[in-house]
Amino acid sequence: MSTTPIIAVQEVTKLYGTQKALDGVSFTVEEPGVVGLLGPNGAGKSTLMKILCGYLSPSSGQAAVCGFDTCAQAMEVRRRVGYLPEHNPLYEDMYVREYLTFTGELYGLDGLKPRVEAVLEQVGFGSESHKRIGALSKGYRQRVGLAQALLPDPDVLILDEPTTGLDPNQIEEIRGLLRQMGQRKTLILSTHIMQEAQAVCGRIILLNKGHRVADAPTSQLLHGQGGACLEVEFAAPLDAMRREALENLPFVARVTGQDTVYRLYLKPEAEAAPAAGDPRAALFQWAVSGSLTIVTLRQETDSLEDVFHSLTQNTPSGL
Question: Where are the domains of the chain?
């Protein structure tokens, strides 16, 4: 028996005049978890998040949250979505609890006092909760926004740069909270911090120029795009002939880098069961035969930042 996807996006296009912010984007989310929505500035992330919240209508295509169309049933969608925008609008003259109570009344929530206390504890507000919002640091204002998004206990949380302005300890606390919430809710997380996405997100959707250019579990995306590689630093820059010889080594799929530092991505057969022995030893022997000195050599796997650059740096972003 088929189940209704939590999020369903089908061929969504959004035009601003003649410019396309989104161009035929499709994907579904069928189970709870943290989904990273990544892309360069202007790739269409914020537009897509606003469509999922029911704040914008697509020019063509359809989007649904929990089975409700984001255009025709926008109010039903908003009842099930918590949204934290990047630039978090707050009433700075209100006290923290006063503001959350006011917000809860707008939602029509019952049992507000214990619910407000629960979300304040959930986001780790601590002793700052007695202050006016205008007197809070940027990091604590961000926590007010996150508490507001959590207040109605939504099925879907859409978070745009949720750790902006937080110190390293606070960032780790929020990351832990996001992982915990992802066990029972669906989170759409937009961030420019690739380490954060790699640490928190179980799936990555990557946009560029309004197109979906990648959509896969994070581990699969990392392995499939880059796989294992050797990072090598030579004592002197390589000339064009030696760079070409490096690229033609039998265990090398491709080479990136310049001057003295290079990344050698291994062919799958070399990574899994190298027939000619350890590629590191083979690389060392090649360097010795060419009178090259290796300063450092280590084996790594691609980071999400590497994948991001690989999929977006050669194509210009859209709106």
Answer: 7-223, 228-301
Mean pLDDT, the chain cut into blocks of 10 residues (319 residues total): 86 94 96 95 94 95 96 93 89 96 91 93 85 90 91 94 83 87 94 90 95 90 68 93 93 87 79 61 92 90 77 56
Q: Report the pLDDT value the prediction gives residue 240, as an integer from 0 to 100.
A: 92
Per DSSP, the three-state class of 309 is helix
Q: How many angstroms separate the CA atoms of 258 and 9, rounded?
A: 41
186 touches 158 (CB < 8 A): no
Give all strands (DSSP E) within 116-180, no chain letters.
156-160
Tell how strand 156-160 and strand 186-190 pair up.
parallel
At position 288, the amino acid (one-letter code) is V
User: What does the pLDDT read at residue 273?
Assistant: 45
Handedness of CA 260, 196, 164, 140 (dihedral sign): negative
Class of 7-223 per CATH? alpha beta
Residue 27 pairs with which residues in a beta bridge?
9
What integer pLDDT is reported at residue 224 of this predicted model?
56
pLDDT for the residue 101: 95
301 beta partners: 228
> Phi/psi class of residue 209: alpha, beta or left (left: φ > 0; alpha: ψ in -120 to 50)?
left
- Say whether domain 228-301 belongs to CATH 2.60.40: no
- Exposure of 175 in the CB half-sphere (CA atoms within 13 A): 20
